[in-house]
Design goal:
mainly beta, 4-stranded antiparallel beta sheet, 11 strands, 0% helix, 46% strand
């Protein structure tokens, strides 16, 4: 497994922006699709975005057009730029890597390495 560390969360007003970072400990991270998930209190962990090796990306409908996922293989890092934040975006955000590149990228069970999460709080 790869050790992942998220950072960049915080408190922001609605309409504001945050840029989350997911840094990996192993070079093998560069060969893995990486996803961002989030979990709000009392809710299940949900898919936010995923980036493939080619940098092609997929997004949840709820964040499409507002969030952008990107990666820097040179830095072994994946980013999640979050714009036009809404109170409903409040959650703990996790990054995860999928060593096998499974097709069901929206399913958190298909990811084998997870970070500890970073809190994002959006006030109205």
């Amino acid at each position: 497994q790869v050790q992942l560390v998220e950072s960049g969360g915080g408190l922001v007003q609605a309409g504001g922006s945050l840029n989350l970072t997911c840094a990996a400990s192993a070079p093998s991270f560069r060969m893995s699709p990486v996803g961002w998930f989030r979990q709000a209190p009392g809710k299940e962990r949900e898919f936010v975005a995923r980036i493939k090796l080619t940098s092609d990306a997929d997004y949840a409908d709820s964040v499409k057009g507002r969030f952008t996922i990107s990666r820097s293989n040179a830095r072994n890092t994946v980013y999640l730029q979050m714009n036009s934040l809404k109170p409903e975006d409040t959650a703990i955000y996790y990054c995860a890597s999928d060593s096998y590149g499974r097709p069901s990228y929206w399913n958190p069970l298909n990811y084998d390495s997870w970070g500890q999460g970073t809190q994002v709080t959006v006030t109205s």
